[in-house]
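$ run holo --ligand "zinc ion" --emit tokens
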Amino acid sequence: MNPNTYQRGLKRVCDAEKQLRIDPLQKLQFVNIYWVVLLYIYIMRRPILLFVLVLLLMPVIGFRMMGHSSWGFYAHKRINRMAVFTLPPGVFGFYKDNIEFVTDHAVDPDKRRYAVTGEAQRHYIDIDHYKIEEEDVFVTVPKKWKDAIKKYTEDTLQAYGIVPWHIEVMMFRLTKAFQEENYDQILKLSADLGHYVGDAHVPLHTTENYNGQLTGQKGIHGFWESRIPELFAEEYDYFVGKAYYIEEPLEFAWQAVKESHHAVDSVLNFEKILSKQFPEDRKYSYETRGNVTVKVYSQEFTKAYSDMMAGMVERRMRKTIIAVGSLWYTAWVNAGKPDLNKHKNKQISPEMQQELQAEDKLHQEGKIKGRGCDHN
Ligand SMILES: [Zn+2]
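-- output --
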């Protein structure tokens, strides 16, 4: 793969993760006040107070940006989990027995983005890159991978994201795993497929302006897909109906991308309108996460934005859940409906456990080595 393609994919992922940075001036002011108080106490020669103050303020000075991933870890996990309950008998029992696995591993593809070359672009497609004047990109961009390569070259496709095609690849792999009755792979691929289907349902995963960076709205990526679910997703209605058979998974993936893309204008415009009504100090607030204080979109601003979109995030989440369940079910049907009862009480093999642990380790090391977002 062209190294520039890899770098572009990684940069895109990382930009989207750098949602909010603490305003350096704000931080400076805060630190200044901190030192002024310390100095004052020192002058007053009250060492015990100094000690107490240092202890109290330690967590607060550890400002950092708020990290995000696609759909946020919370939403990805919730989607895979709820998808299990859409399944009909025949598959339901199997997924119910393994619900913790598909939930926990819903975010594995995001962890792999820094460690695996070619992973980053599987999570999005910048479909507007292909737009020429008033043409409809959903007509002009070939749906099939081979036709699209002929028209644009593989390097270009990789550079601007491949999510709909990757969903098709994942469907082939999952179907094969069902045919081979490969317990490990069925679970791993199901969890992964749920992730990519989730990403295809997020409007900002379908545009070059993925983090509002082209329109002065940096941070909107995580605002839409992490902050809103974090505050409101507990109240969403997850009764989404029953999974159904999907005749054309590739066409289905494209449909998800198309619906997502059609929502991009609202996602960006509503934020812009509200930002004019909210002064900075009401748009953002500070919250404590663990032992650090992070700058976040205020609850008031988030509520106003969510209301303005009239439940868009909830609608996209609900659509994703039924989509994930339906694709799992379709893969099982296409594999000839193998009997899944024989996997009852099975455990993930030690080899698969090792593989997953190695992936996790790579993810951690990737961050430490500087391939993660904080260092780009
Ligand atoms: Zn993702």
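-- notes --
The CA atoms of residues 20 and 221 lie 10 Å apart.
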